[in-house]
Amino acid sequence: MSIINIQNVTKTFPEGTKALDNVSLSINDGEVFALLGPNGAGKTTLIGVIAGVVQKTDGTITVLGKDTVKDYRQTRGTIGLVPQEIQVDIFLSIKKTLEYQRGFFGKRKNEKLIEKTLKALSLWDKKDAPVGSLSGGMKRRVLIAKALMNEPKILFLDEPTAGVDVELRKGMWDYVKELKKNGTTIILTTHYLEEAEMMADRIGVINKGKIILVEEKKTLMKKLGDKTLEITLDTPIQKIPEKLTQYNLSLTKDGEKITYRYKPGQTGITKLLANIKECGISLKDVETRETSLEEIFLSLIDNNNETKTI
Amino acid sequence: MINWIGLWTIFRKEIERTRTVIVQSIIAPTLTTALYFIVFGAAVGNQITTTGDVSYKQFIVPGLIMMALVTNAMIASASGIYFPRFLGIITDLLAAPMDFVEITFGYTIAAAVRATIIGVLIYLTALFFTPLPIAHPLFVLIFGFLSAWTFACLGMIMGLWAKDFERLFLIPSIVLTPLTFLGGVFYKIDMLPPLWQKITMLNPIFYMIDGLRYGFFGISSTNHCVALSAITVTLIITLTIIKHFFTIGYGLRK
Known about the structure:
The complex is a heterodimer. Chain A is an alpha/beta fold. Chain A contains 10 helices and 14 strands. Chain A has helices at residues 43-51, 72-77, 94-104, 111-120, 136-147, 166-181, 193-199, 217-224, 269-278, 293-309, and strands at residues 2-12, 18-28, 32-36, 58-63, 66-67, 79-82, 154-158, 185-189, 202-207, 210-216, 227-233, 250-251, 257-262, 283-290. In chain A, the strands form 3 sheets. A 6-stranded mixed sheet of chain A has the order 6-7-8-3-9-10, sandwiched between helices. In chain A, strand 12 and strand 13 form a beta hairpin. In chain A, helix 3 packs parallel to helix 5. Chain B is an all-alpha fold. Chain B has one domain (55-248). Chain B has 11 helices and no strands. In chain B, helix 2 runs antiparallel to helix 3. The longest helix of chain B is centred in the N-terminal third of the chain and has 32 residues, at 56-87. The chains are: A alpha/beta, B mainly alpha.
């Protein structure tokens, strides 16, 4: 079931920049949706128009069936937003920040929720510290805690792990998994594509304000992901033998490794290895790996940019 | 439906902000106005005569209170809305189920209350120097608060308009201070030459000071009902401008 429905949304800034160009997208209830795109692609603007911090120029957005303009009170009440920029009132304590945040959403004070959230994000010990005195990573976790104060059905995470160290990042994602388990729909943008690969159920790619692809992560990886066979040779060779040119192999500069890319299910590996043997080449090691989401993403963006320039 | 808890939260946050910087927000403006009172009322005042039973010391108190009310209300709400914009935390309000009513009333009423506290403190300070019976207490309260609220709304317009700190304090320093000083805080209008009397009549602050003076002493240079109507109309106009800013997202939404 769709929880957010975006229909033909356009956003043109006063100076003429078209940040969103006729975007239509549907987010399913309870899923983790990763919105990927290069800098300036329109990710933050799209999140902003859904959450109500940016005014759209055209189109309609519904959240849980309610229009985000006409029924803004209902729609905003169901959304939690973790902004990309670290924006906090540096003079307030963490606890006060959370109390006020809950109040803005028309909800009464809830000490238990604050305690539970701060403990889950390893911030409880610092609850009375002014937010300005915290490290960058801690401030980012305060942003997450703030976004959870209205107990949202939908959580937007706009680059939530930027500047957060590896260990804390893992902790944050574990917590996000918990939220998903409890039924929260999560829309995330991240520059760490391995995180999107790890977390997302579906992937959307946006470039120059247009959605260029929306796909189940598994299908995407299957459809666009190649597999790579890396063969380490016993003795380096100068060039690929004539007999092997049909495989479109690549040879490293030092002549020690041959790489073979193939689509999953269309391997031809046995034949290739037999042919290599026939050429008198002896092997030291053979390794296969899948193309990462990052490689898929980069090739998608490259293709999209090329199409545009043509 | 109005998000009352949201409105109350903004109000509470603003009052808390006033409390944490109490020296700067309450004590300093009270002290500054008290100094005006001591210098003009006690030192210079002996040389100036006023008509009726009102001494010069008493005469200047409503003007000083009004000066403090409008200046502090304007600065409090202007900085109240500008700082979240400057820090980027305005998104906390924009992403919440709130709009014009909650945000405007939360900030401006908090600013008006802060200014009213300063006004009361100035009144109490003046009592150390001169007796100050109030002829129409309810009128003083309503008129004083409405004036503070109107200037808090003007402050909010400034806070939404300002793109930097210089512009934020441009109106209070360049426009408001001269208008208050020339609005009859320290003198009666009939002490001025005829041309200056006419010019003074164009100054809205003059009517506000005169109206408050009516509340204190029961006497005024103009009709106090006109002053009360003018301030109410100004309040409605400022609220309409702010509502328009919210509709088009001016200073708030990209």
